[in-house]
Amino acid sequence: MDFMELAKARYSVRKFDPRPVEEEKVEAILAAALAAPTAKNLQPQRLLVLKSREALEKLTHVTGCTYGCPLAFVVCYDESVCWHRSFDGKSSGDVDASIVTTHMMLAGWEQGIGSTWVMAFDPAALRREYHLPENIRPTAILVMGYAAPAALPSPNHAASITRDQMVAGESF
Ligand SMILES: Cc1cc2nc3c(=O)[nH]c(=O)nc-3n(C[C@H](O)[C@H](O)[C@H](O)COP(=O)(O)O)c2cc1C
Questions:
Q1: Which tens digits make up the pLDDT trace of 134-172?
Q2: What is the Rg, in whole angstroms, of the alpha carbon atoms belonging to the chain?
Q3: What's the total number of domains in the chain?
């Protein structure tokens, strides 16, 4: 699938089949996460891979958006490793972790694995359930798996601003 086809075909899967994702596909998704660019190539991304029933059950205490997934990644960054802008101290962590998450989402789709990016989670509950140390900051949860036969894109999927609404300025 070429890139634009892939980018346009992907949609947030919110109903998963319980079938487990094959180990080689999990590894390919992790390889895509490793290939992501990060600020100054400091690679602060740190991931939890949740596959066991216990680990996935804990996730239901953290977010209402698990959608019956058989696989999830918690995408975090290590605040002590990421780049900080000298002008104002802003950390690259959320940006780095977001690029990583995007790579994973698209690498999954290429292999027939759907996902939804979840930001609606309780960070304190996440920290508690998975014993995250203070320097490890969660950015996203990527719930993944094969789409259930009844899965459909949400009506929101097709909504799009126009090219001209998006381009705020040209030829400055
Ligand atoms: C940063 C971010 C946070 C999101 N958080 C959630 C979430 O917590 N729960 C959820 O069901 N979907 C979440 N989504 C999915 C979006 O709602 C979805 O991508 C958007 O509506 C477009 O639909 P599509 O992915 O099917 O194209 C999130 C997406 C992004 C990029």
A1: 999 999 999 999 999 999 999 999 999 999 999 998 887
A2: 17
A3: 1
